[in-house]
Every structure is written in structure tokens, then in C-alpha cells.
Amino acid sequence: MSAAGQPGGGPARPPGGTLARTGTVSLLLVLSGSALAFGTTLLVSNRLGAEGAGVFFQISASFAILTTLCTFGADTGLVRFLSAGRALGREHEAASLLSTALVPVAVAATSVAVALWVAAPAVADLWGADVEAGIRSAAPFIIIGSLMTVLFGALRGSGEIIRFAALQNLALPLLRLAGLCAAIGIGAGIGALSAAWSVPVLIVCLAAALLLRRTLRIHRTSAEPQQPRTGSGAPSRRTFWSFSGARGASSGVEILLEWVDVLAVAVFLGPAAAGVYGVVNRCIRLGSMLDHTARIVSGPSLSAALAVGDVASAARLFNSVTRLLILGAWPLYLVYLLFGAPVLRIFGEGFDVASGAFTVIAATMLLVVSAGGVQSVLLMSGRSRWQLLNKIAALAVALILNLFLVPALGLYGAVIAWSSAALVDTGLAAFQVRVFLGIGLRLNVVALPAALAFSVFGLGGWFLRWATGPTFHGLLLLLVCGGTLYAVLLAALRRPLGLAALAAKPHLPQPSEGMPLGRR
């Protein structure tokens, strides 16, 4: 909103400093959450073995999928409408919005939890593993997890971005890791392990509720009286759920894409194979933390540029983010590509059987990262429906290929299915962004970052692999020596790489005569 549109006619607060601080703190919290999640995977895989880890990953995957489906975009709806209410001085509508979001989610989640509790024996038979106790331990927490997700959205909509990130990326994974350590330490079974993983959701949910209550009270007491505005009432339930439902459908497809291959491996190949493949899945997801942080930092500036039709600024920002993604993610995936076996051995005996599949996924991710933040461009330009259709197409590819290839090719079948779905999703988004929005990747912008990462971790890693073999010693040398050399080169080439510009205060385009690129 422009300054003139602020309540009371006062000037808008400049977002630059806030954005920079939020981005920096969010990055640190995302890194912390990723490290804790990695530690949890290490703990589970080493102490439970492939089969036990497979059962654990199945339950956690099902919990994540069902929680996302029950929430159905209500958290995103609160982000939008609570933010709009604050901007227009309508803090008093927060309670009504919360009721609109929470009641249907609570009803849906309760129905799913009861159904899952009753059907636990049948589900355990379908999985072919003794998971009935784990399912019943986790089922009630689907309700709590869904409510927690909605409260997280309310915190974001109320401007509490850093506190939300602290709860999601620090408190929750830390409590889960501590609970699993205690449960595994006493030799608990799968039911207790499932409870140890789920109970922190209740703790964090209560913390989010208390923090939100305090935040909303502060907003109400500090809000200045506003003149009534025509048509400024709270959104109807239909308006709220019409908006939230579209994003909810997309989120449901995304979470299915994230876990469908793990579940397919569990069904066709058993829990031990699912445990091995689940570790591969968790390692690959570490690379997504950079993309997540880039969205937080660049999203407002990208949205502002697209809103006023400033395609040139949006294209420059898109290329800058792509350059950053290549610099940050290519080294990780090149390490996976060349030293996949020793990386997987860290998780325990038998996990390195998936090293070939790990290599294929790492190569795929090099291509996905090279496309840049095309998903963020689609969202910030208002093309959420395009993104939904893309992900539905990718999910269809994943389901069909998993169904036919996993029984025939084992883990390689799951890898082919996952890689094909990722390339379809990214390829469609890249085509739409370039052809319909006029924002494309400039090779001269990403050539130096790609050459730098490939020289140090690709050629250097290949030499170390040739000299030492695919060993932990070679992996350690690459991480220490290659990482040190890479850091020195980044510092020396800071200006040619454009890192100095990335550290500058973000530019927010001013409204111009250009027409917006698309409707929100």
C-alpha cells in the first residue's frame, strides 16, 4: 500500500531495514531448523536402523500430509486478511477472522483424527508393519498440528515473522530432537517414539496461542481510531475460504509431491527400503533452505516490481536470486553427486545402498536450481492457479511413474519418478515465467557463479574422488579444503559475482504508468 493509503493518511514505514533484519534472522533460524532436522534424521537412522527409520518416516510423512490437507490454506488466508486489516486499522476484526479459520479446520482435523484412530489396524496391515501404536499416538496430534499451523498464519499476518520463525524452525525441531533422544535412550517402542515426535506440537501450539493473544491485544490497544470506510467490513466466510482454498489445494499437492515417493517405496518395497529412501529425501531437502530464505528476502521487492509492471526490475532481481541459489546450492549437490556413498554412511550401516539413486537426484537438483526462483515469480505475479496446475501435472507424473516403476526398478524407479515430476514442475514454471511474464534467465549473469562452483566442487571433487575413492576421507577433504578455497574465491570475486549488490538495501519500485502484470 502506498503512503497515501495508510490509515490516517500518515506515511508508510520504510520496509527496507525491517526486510533486511527479518531476512537475516530468518536465514539463521532456517539454518538452525535444517541442522536440527538433519540431527533428528541422523539419530533415528543410526539408532533404529533402516527398517525402524522407515516406519518412523512413514508416520511423520502421513502426519505432515494430513495436517496440510486439514488446514487447507487457512494459514495463508490469515496472512492476507489480517495484514490487510492491520493496514486499514481494522484490528478488531481479528477475532472474527480467527473464528472463520479455526472452526472448520478443527472440525475437519477432528474427523480425520477419529477416522485414523479407528482405521489404525487396517492401515497397519496395509503398510505391512507394526505401526498401529504409532498411528494411534499421532492421530490426536493431527488436530493440534492443524490448529498450530493456523495460528502460525495468524502470527505472520500480525507481523510477528521472526517469532513465528523461531517457533517453527527452532522451538519445534529442538523439542522433537530432545523428545526422540529421551525415547530412544530408554528403548521405547514405535508408539512412544511417535508420541515423543508429536507432543512438542502441543507445546508449540500453546506458545503460539499465548503469543498471538498478546500480540492482538497490543494491536487493539495501540490502534488509532479510524474513520469508517465504505465496504471495509471483515471478509465473509465465502471470500476467506475462496482465497484460502486455492492455496490449500496447491499446498496439498506440494506436500504429496514431497512424500509420495517415500510412501510408494514403503508400500512396494517395505519399511527398510523406505527408511533408506527417506534419508535420501531428507538430505536433498537440505538444499531447499536457501530457496526458502531467498523467497522471504526477495518476495516483497519482487511483488512490488510486478505489481507496477516494472518487468526490468523484476528480471534483475530474479537473475540475482538465481545467481545466489547457484552459488549456495550447487556445492551441496555436487558433493552429493561425487560422494553420495560416504554421505549416506553417516546415517548408519546399509544406507549407502541408495548411493546410485542419490546421485541421480543430486544431478536433477542441479538443473532445478539452475532455473532460479521461478516458483516465487509465479506466486508474486498472482499466478497461483498456474502454479497449482503445474503441480497437479507433476503429481500425476509422480503417481503414474511410482506405480509402474517402483515395483519393477526398486529405488531407481522412485528416483526416476521423483526426478521426472521435479523437472516437469520446474520446466512448466520456467516456460510460463519466460514466455508469458517476459522474465528469463541471463546466461552471462549465472555463468561465473556456475563456473566457480563447478570448478571447486565439481572438478576439485572429481580429482579427490579419483585420488581417494568414494571415501569419508575424500569427503572430509572436499568439505574442508574445497570449502575454504570457495570462501576465499567468493570474497575475492565479491563484486563480479554481484554479492555486494545483494547485500544492499532492497529497492522497492514506485508506482508508475505501467500496467500491473496480473491480477492478484
TrEMBL record:
One Pfam family name is: Polysacc_synt
Q: Where in the cell is it found?
A: Cell membrane
Q: Which organism is it from?
A: Arthrobacter jinronghuae
Where is the chain membrane-spanning?
A: 25-44, 56-82, 94-118, 138-155, 167-188, 194-212, 324-347, 353-380, 392-409, 415-433, 445-466, 472-493
Q: Which key words tag this protein in UniProt?
A: Cell membrane, Membrane, Transmembrane, Transmembrane helix
- Give the way it sits in the membrane: Multi-pass membrane protein
Source organism lineage?
Bacteria, Bacillati, Actinomycetota, Actinomycetes, Micrococcales
Which InterPro entries does the UniProt entry name for this protein?
Poly_Biosynth_Transport (IPR050833), Polysacc_synth (IPR002797)
Name of the protein in question: Polysaccharide biosynthesis C-terminal domain-containing protein
Tell whether Transmembrane helix is among the UniProt keywords: yes
